[in-house]
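Schema walk-through. Below, the input block comes first and the output block second. Nothing else is stored per chain. Lengths vary across the set, and this one has 368 residues.
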Amino acid sequence: MNWKTLRSVFALIGVMIALTVLTEGTFISPRNLTNLTRQVAINGILAVGMTYVILIGGIDLSVGSVVALSGIVVGILQVNCGFSQWVGSAAWAATLLSIGAATLVGLLCGAFNGWMITRQRIAPFIITLGMMVIARGVALILAKGAAIAPLSDHFNELGQGYLSLFWTVAIVGGGTLVNAAFLIFKKDRTKADFTLAGASVVVSGFLLWVFMGYRGLPIPVLVFGIIALCGTIILQKTRLGRFVLAIGGNADAAWISGVPIRSISFGIYITLGALAGLSGAILSARLNGAMPTAGELFELDAIAAVVIGGTSLLGGVGTVRGSILGAFFIGALNNGMSLMDVSEFFQKVIKGIIIIVAVWFDMRQSNR
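--- output ---
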């Protein structure tokens, strides 16, 4: 674990302690923390994909609008096309079709961004800014400026459902034991591996206390956990992950070494688009409706989570693990300020200051 990740850990612990004191213990209650993890799940999913984009030296400003557009597609299928009226096994089929359609819409938006960036050589900032406006406009046109609701109970399970206590213990506890055993018994283990194993057990115990103290593991958190795990393994343990870091570190050297820069960059933008589409489906399920104004500033929260997590805006340096911590830091801050009745206007100012400070630290480190 590098110093940037440790910095994110200490920052998260510090803000949680401060908010617990300021809210007189309300923040640390199992119910509030469970709701916090459910709220963080969407930004966390986006942050995983945004980590890869920033690691290759890119940026994507369109994810918030893509979340809204994907949600509107779900609303149209559920309400206008009658998917919400399907019953029995057909209801689950309608749910899967809705989720698939939202993900496909996001994937197509990401493919357009990736094609324009990699093939037409348009700056990522410009093309994703254009997509941000286009996707938002299309969402408003399709929805005619109004929310689309209600959605089916089956579909809403994606955003509002909880796993039973048995499955919560099995997934959280079992996953932790497998991870700890792998770290401790692998051949090339180090002292850091023992530290990580112990830390994972402590975190797992805390999460079990949180989830079992309320209603169980939220389904959005389970989806986020699976995506975060896949993102971490790919970046740290595969050749593709090494290629991603190489592209961000020195694109010319990576190209000379035979790294397929265009293909990898194109695939990363497609993946982030698909994750934004999935996030749109989860958000619609959580709200029991699709709104064309949903997802506002989600792209900034995702970028902030990545930067706070230690990923360099210059590319080539960063981890998915750090971005997850950054997402929880942003989520804890939002949740705590809401509990203290801090005005939304002041919340934006505070988050903006935090982003500036995080980027300032990042640039100082890069210069060194």
